[in-house]
């Protein structure tokens, strides 16, 4: 348990019957008239939904401990992603739902941050940008600008993104894992 006076960004609270919410931002407000209160912006750990919530100052809130560890993606086992803790070499099977959109950018050997609460995997977080190889893309035709200068390209993970016309099959490109945007070619 903690008090709303102790809130910090990134702290995880257990509210509304056990739902986990991460504190995105908070502000202590002391109006000239009436009691002080704390205005917060909370993000659901599971769904990513953001809500505004106001607490009376000094209210007790239940905190949750989230264990975040960097783990290496090893392989797929049916519907599960198998990650290995590089310090203990323990293997962890993670359900496809917990991996979410990160699955579009995961290849064997990639390191990801795996967040757990009481033994349950909440989510898998990749670095903001990853480097992946282009498996297939059609050659860009000079003068073809009807699509704004981009074309579809299939990454080595099987996921398709839009890339500039000059990118060719076999090149390694940087991709933003949050927006699926092309960020540039791999710098040598």
From TrEMBL:
<dbReference type="InterPro" id="IPR001059">
    <property type="entry name" value="Transl_elong_P/YeiP_cen"/>
</dbReference>
<keyword id="KW-0251">Elongation factor</keyword>
<dbReference type="InterPro" id="IPR014722">
    <property type="entry name" value="Rib_uL2_dom2"/>
</dbReference>
<feature type="domain" description="Translation elongation factor P/YeiP central">
    <location>
        <begin position="68"/>
        <end position="122"/>
    </location>
</feature>
<dbReference type="InterPro" id="IPR020599">
    <property type="entry name" value="Transl_elong_fac_P/YeiP"/>
</dbReference>
<dbReference type="Pfam" id="PF01132">
    <property type="entry name" value="EFP"/>
</dbReference>
<keyword id="KW-0963">Cytoplasm</keyword>
<dbReference type="InterPro" id="IPR011768">
    <property type="entry name" value="Transl_elongation_fac_P"/>
</dbReference>
<dbReference type="InterPro" id="IPR008991">
    <property type="entry name" value="Translation_prot_SH3-like_sf"/>
</dbReference>
<dbReference type="Pfam" id="PF08207">
    <property type="entry name" value="EFP_N"/>
</dbReference>
<dbReference type="InterPro" id="IPR013185">
    <property type="entry name" value="Transl_elong_KOW-like"/>
</dbReference>
<protein>
    <recommendedName>
        <fullName>Elongation factor P</fullName>
    </recommendedName>
</protein>
<dbReference type="Pfam" id="PF09285">
    <property type="entry name" value="Elong-fact-P_C"/>
</dbReference>
<dbReference type="InterPro" id="IPR012340">
    <property type="entry name" value="NA-bd_OB-fold"/>
</dbReference>
<comment type="pathway">
    <text>Protein biosynthesis; polypeptide chain elongation.</text>
</comment>
<dbReference type="InterPro" id="IPR015365">
    <property type="entry name" value="Elong-fact-P_C"/>
</dbReference>
<dbReference type="InterPro" id="IPR013852">
    <property type="entry name" value="Transl_elong_P/YeiP_CS"/>
</dbReference>
<keyword id="KW-0648">Protein biosynthesis</keyword>
<comment type="function">
    <text>Involved in peptide bond synthesis. Stimulates efficient translation and peptide-bond synthesis on native or reconstituted 70S ribosomes in vitro. Probably functions indirectly by altering the affinity of the ribosome for aminoacyl-tRNA, thus increasing their reactivity as acceptors for peptidyl transferase.</text>
</comment>
<dbReference type="GO" id="GO:0003746">
    <property type="term" value="F:translation elongation factor activity"/>
</dbReference>
<comment type="similarity">
    <text>Belongs to the elongation factor P family.</text>
</comment>
<feature type="domain" description="Elongation factor P C-terminal">
    <location>
        <begin position="130"/>
        <end position="185"/>
    </location>
</feature>
